[in-house]
UniProtKB/TrEMBL annotation:
<dbReference type="GO" id="GO:0005829">
    <property type="term" value="C:cytosol"/>
</dbReference>
<dbReference type="InterPro" id="IPR010252">
    <property type="entry name" value="HutF"/>
</dbReference>
<dbReference type="InterPro" id="IPR011059">
    <property type="entry name" value="Metal-dep_hydrolase_composite"/>
</dbReference>
<feature type="domain" description="Formimidoylglutamate deiminase N-terminal">
    <location>
        <begin position="3"/>
        <end position="40"/>
    </location>
</feature>
<dbReference type="GO" id="GO:0046872">
    <property type="term" value="F:metal ion binding"/>
</dbReference>
<keyword id="KW-0862">Zinc</keyword>
<keyword id="KW-0479">Metal-binding</keyword>
<dbReference type="InterPro" id="IPR055156">
    <property type="entry name" value="HutF-like_N"/>
</dbReference>
<dbReference type="InterPro" id="IPR032466">
    <property type="entry name" value="Metal_Hydrolase"/>
</dbReference>
<dbReference type="GO" id="GO:0102127">
    <property type="term" value="F:8-oxoguanine deaminase activity"/>
</dbReference>
<dbReference type="Pfam" id="PF01979">
    <property type="entry name" value="Amidohydro_1"/>
</dbReference>
<dbReference type="InterPro" id="IPR051607">
    <property type="entry name" value="Metallo-dep_hydrolases"/>
</dbReference>
<dbReference type="Pfam" id="PF22429">
    <property type="entry name" value="HutF_N"/>
</dbReference>
<dbReference type="GO" id="GO:0019239">
    <property type="term" value="F:deaminase activity"/>
</dbReference>
<protein>
    <submittedName>
        <fullName>8-oxoguanine deaminase</fullName>
        <ecNumber>3.5.4.32</ecNumber>
    </submittedName>
</protein>
<dbReference type="InterPro" id="IPR006680">
    <property type="entry name" value="Amidohydro-rel"/>
</dbReference>
<keyword id="KW-0378">Hydrolase</keyword>
Amino acid sequence: MTKALFARDALLPTGWTRDVLLEWNDAGELTRVSPGASAADAPAAPGPLLAGMPNLHSHAFQRAMAGLAETRGHPTDDFWTWREAMYHLVTTLEPEDVGAISLQLYVEMLKQGYTSVAEFHYLQHDRAGVPYADRAELAERVIASAQASGIAMTLLPVLYTHGGFGHRPLNAAQKRFGGNAESIAALLRDLVDRHAGTPLLHFGVAPHSARAVDAVQLTDLMQAMEGIDATAPIHMHASEQTGEVRECFETQGVTPIHWIMDLVDVDRRWCFVHSTHATEEERERMREAGVVAGLCPMTEANLGDGIFPFEEHFALGGRWGVGGDSHVSRSPFEELRALEYSQRLSRRVRNVTASEAVPDVAANLWQGACAGGAQALGQPVGMIAVGRRADLVVLDAEGPDFESLAASPALAVAMFSGIPAPVRDVYVGGVRVVHDGHHEAEETARENFRSALKRVRNGGRL
């Protein structure tokens, strides 16, 4: 295994740097980052080098429906009508489908520059909502797909108790998600025991949302986490849609993020996914607590959820990262472009993610998302620095769009010009999993994915 790499240009925490020699140990941890060095015997990266991007929010199974909810089915089509199409998919999936869809997704993500993923895993039971003989059946399928692809994972078993505010019962599809604090804690303990010491695999937990858990379930789960892993990441959907915010206020007397933060101790372990309609006071509480805002710009745009006030959050030093969510995009470059463009459209100015002190928009977006994503996943990634894992992305400098460009404008072209495949090589823990744009499992993954789609799209029958 190669344990060294030389980069003519690398995006370090201090900015773009020339002639950087990297070395890492058998565990894939960077032990040397030397600017102004010579290559010595190290192989040379064939393009500018970036830290690998963490994807902080994934529902892997939804990859199977990307692009299939784009016909108007209601006068006010929105998240809630899209959800019905998603529920239809849920009723068709078997364990082998979940595995095949996940592997295809993770290979695609790696080829686009994601090197780690937080899997918000709420598909727990069989198609009738009955627990499998092995309660971790579907979790193990997702874990196996991550391992087969080489992507690092933080698996987040999801607590999903109610079908809506007011203790609404679960509908037929939601029964596949159902659980309580005790069952999710038991599942997590089981998974932690099974996979103790497994490289590239971490665990956390995800109370689904203010509409799907109640105060007792949320506080019980947080108490259980103190005994399982008091440092583990905690993710929760929050303030994604205006309807959710309104219902929360009507039933609980407060908006969702206030409700959560008034009930439990919220700190840097937490990621509030979306936070789109968080109030100004809620966003300030998030910044003070060090919470990561988990932004999913392509999915949020697809669903018509709204626009997070990112310009203010960025200017005030808030933590944030990006996720693929429903996977209408598998590219961090597209997510970051959508984030910046949403701010330009709402503010009617250009180059929002910048200031006089830090004017490079593309570098600011990449580094900010890497830092927040690393925090949200609870993994030692997010920057090219000693002690961090050697998760690395090499841009394809031989592409025609990069001709005669220095590293900084090359990243801007990769992010904002719309070129389809700006990534050449990808390393996870020092292991090259994408070489010259190719992943060794991509053909197998594609064929298994095709077979799963054929079965699913025939109503779960062949």
